[in-house]
Amino acid sequence: MQLPEQFIAQIERLFPGESDAMLRAISETNPSVSVRVNDARDAVVPTGVDTVPWCDRGFYLDERPQFTFDPMWHAGMYYVQDASSMFIHHVIKSLVDEPAVFLDLCAAPGGKTTAALQALPEGSLVVANEIVVSRARVLADNVSRWGNPNSAVTCCAPRGLGKLRHAFDVIAADVPCSGEGMMRKDDEAVSQWSPALVEQCADRQRGIIADIWPALKPGGLFIYSTCTYNTEENEQMLAHIVEEYGAEVLEVPVSPEWPIHAGVNTELPCYRFLPHLTRGEGLFMAVLRKPADEPVRPAKPGKKQRTPARTDAPRTLKQWLLQEKDYKVTVTGDTVAAVPKQYAAIIDLLAECNLMQAGVTLGTVKGKNCVPAQSLALSSALNREEFPECKLDYPTAIAYLRGEAITVDAPRGYALVTYNGAPLGWINNLGNRANNMYPKPLRILSTHAPETAPQVIK
Asked: For residues 240 and 208, is the Cβ–Cβ distance under 8 A?
């Protein structure tokens, strides 16, 4: 890999004494592979793998398996995430000790969103936002796959969310950046880099912060991160937030044994992950607290409101929920959805932010027939006792995930398809055949599956 000369000079200036090792790590070493398991589903990692130091649910793999051909990945039993990015799990565990309304502002594809869903105190709500529609769809799929109904996905510019004044206890902004930390994984990060790009990104970041800052409650936490190395987008941006908004930079407790680099040319507490020190990619993260003396002005509904949803959902669909009393169940058109009652008002506010999904979609009503939704199959809110279960072996599970017809031994009607106990989706057993209900956008397209399943988790 041929790194840009100006980038090399920048690294030599910022990291004297360790620049040679850092540049070698960027140019010559392969990225590590790590996953974070979904402990809400009792996922078990095979023995003999190393734990990510700052995330007890994160594990390094010895090699990169074909995740596409692992039914357990499709079931949301784990998330493939760079180990450095898992630091947000530790940040949340360390600094958030009460249920919170959490916004992941630049959330796609969903790594930090699912980490927040896992790390936040029980009863929290996570709103995941992505401004690019195609990426927001991927985000929505990954959030559904993780299975936590205390979530919502929006597709909105930061300024739109910023209008929800004082709506969020915590905002995480993994802002668009020059991507220097991705150089050994992404050739485009190398080819597009220039000092002008760094300046352009820093300017954009200042705009994003200005747009979203009003949405943070007084005394709330702002988690700022990038995947780049320069100081313009990192330490200097941290100083800008302190000066412009009066924020206090908080210290995150870290073990001295963890290979985390201190900030560059600053006394402010911040945390750098560098490739010659860490089994992970480049990352910068810092946590700030908004001044608590700003008068609280609760978010109010805007002009754009959702069409009022009916509450006459069929009793059958309500019984598909484990704890029906905890949810507000509504009908919009022929679609029945359930959102946590305690956050129904906040989710209504998100209507003006292009709300894509919230809570869990239970299914659709077609005449006298109720059709279960894919998101329900993967949700922790599913009452599995309401459906017969079809346990698939590996070849049949792959066939199902490809959308192929499969033969099952089950009663007529809708049945939950599982692999090693993990739900994958639905079939409609008609007796002589079973209709495969796995959604087309999620199906495996490749036909070259291995003979045995990748052994990532048990």
From this structure: no
Judged against a pLDDT cut of 60, whether residue 306 lies above it is answered with no
Length of the chain: 458
Tell which residue, 50, 109, 105, has the closest CA to residue 79: 109
The whole-angstrom separation of Cα 369 and Cα 115 is 37
Indicate whether this model's pTM tops 0.90: yes
pLDDT in tens, 368-421: 889 999 999 999 999 999 999 999 999 999 999 999 999 888 889 999 999 999
Contact between 234 and 215 under an 8 Å Cβ cutoff? The reply is no
Q: What is the DSSP letter of 39?
A: G
Dihedral class, residue 48 (left if φ above 0, else alpha if ψ from -120 to 50, else beta): left
- pLDDT over threshold 80, residue 429: yes
Condensed to tens digits (0 to 9), the pLDDT of residues 73-91 reads 999 999 999 999 999 999 9
If one compares 308 and 186, the residue with the highest pLDDT of the two is 186
Q: Known catalytic residue: 201?
A: no
Task: Report the relative pairing of strands 271-273 and 216-226 from DSSP bridges.
Answer: unpaired
Question: If we measure between CA atoms, which residue out of 101, 99, 105 comes closest to residue 345?
Answer: 101
Q: Catalytic: which of 227, 353, 370, 390?
A: 227
Q: Peptide bond before 121: cis, by omega within 30 degrees of 0? A: no
- Alpha helix positions (H), 252-391: 315-318, 344-349, 374-378
**Spatial CA neighbour of 104 closest among 79, 124, 78:** 124
Pick the more confident residue, 230 or 450: 230
Name the burial class of residue 180, with classes exposed (0-12), middle (13-18) and buried (19+) by CB atoms within 10 angstroms of its CB: buried
Q: What is the DSSP string of 135-198?
A: HHHHHHHHHHHHT-SSEEEE---HHHHHTSTT-EEEEEEE-----GGGTTT-HHHHHT--HHHH
The per-residue pLDDT for range 226-249, each reduced to its tens digit, is: 999 999 999 999 999 999 999 999
User: DSSP string of 212-274?
Assistant: HGGGEEEEEEEEEEES---STTTHHHHHHHHHHH--EEEPPP--TTS--BPPSS--S--EEE-
